[in-house]
Write a structure and sequence with these properties.
Elements (H helix, E strand, L loop, with lengths): L1 H36 L19 H12 L10 E5 L6 H14 L3 E6 L10 H15 L1 H13 L12 H7 L9 E6 L10 H14 L3 E7 L3 H8 L6 E5 L17
Helix pairs in contact: 1-5, 4-5, 4-7, 6-7
């Protein structure tokens, strides 16, 4: 009898091993496809560039509460726009937000725009990078993207439409168990008044469709960015004027990147 029971155990073990091998092979295949076809920019937050210890506590608490509360309690407000004049500490705040989200395993991706960098000042790279980062941390999304690239060998970063990100999201058969957040800092330093709106509309469309995905954007209050938010329904987003924040004067940093 012992021998009879031993055989099935080996079969089950072998079956699980085979599934593990197949899963690993699929992961590598999808990764190679993404790396070969999806252009992205290496950009991330820096611990040393966060707000000074003890500052922005109230605003950070408010933002994290917005992230962690259930979507049914937020009236569909899935985009948080933080704006202010140069030197007011927007980028330091963005680094702090990223660190807090990372600690809670809710940071989906980040893009720090930079006017004097050709890759970080290209609006199209924002979507490509965020697609890539979400594909890395959420396998079902990675499979959707990889399948699309596999079926259409002519898709390139330059030929991808701004609506493709939303198409990928719509094809998901399984959703993340927790809220994930994208952070885009200094949007005004990316592209021009003509090229930014398409990227911003694509981002807000994705956030509006997927209640599990939220987006935080910091920028100067440029006319084109304001216009994009003005045409949105007020209940879809939150605006925060950093100039009006009581903690602003205590958090201005001499070396802050803004």
């Amino acid at each position: 009898m012992l021998k009879l029971f031993a055989e099935p155990r080996r079969l089950v073990s072998t079956h699980c091993l085979n599934l593990s091998i197949v899963g690993s092979q699929q992961f590598r295949a999808e990764q190679e496809l993404l790396l070969g076809r999806l252009k992205y920019v290496k950009t991330g937050y820096h611990q040393d560039l966060r707000c000074m210890e003890g500052t922005r506590k109230s605003l950070l608490k408010q933002i994290m509460a917005w992230v962690t509360n259930g979507s049914e309690q937020q009236d569909g407000r899935d985009v948080y726009w933080i704006y202010g004049l140069p030197g007011i500490g927007k980028t330091s705040l963005a680094h702090s937000i990223c660190a807090s989200l990372h600690d809670q395993e809710q940071l989906a991706g980040v893009f720090f725009c930079q006017r004097d960098d050709p890759e970080l000042s290209e609006p199209r790279n924002i979507l490509l990078t965020l697609i890539h980062k979400l594909a890395i941390i959420f396998p079902p999304f990675r499979s959707v993207v990889a399948e699309h690239f596999h079926k259409d060998p002519n898709v390139t970063p330059e030929s991808m439409t701004y609506t493709l990100f939303l198409e990928f999201i719509r094809k998901l058969s399984r959703l993340p168990k927790r809220t994930l957040v994208f952070v885009i800092d200094a949007l005004d330093e990316c592209g021009s008044t003509q090229s930014r709106p398409d990227t911003l509309r694509a981002l807000t469309s994705v956030a509006a469709y997927a209640p599990w995905l939220k987006i935080i954007i910091t920028s100067r209050p440029e006319d084109d960015i304001q216009h994009c938010f003005n045409v949105l329904t007020p209940s879809t987003h939150i605006r925060y004027d950093l100039t009006a924040d009581k903690e602003t004067t205590s958090d201005l940093r001499i070396f802050a990147q803004d």
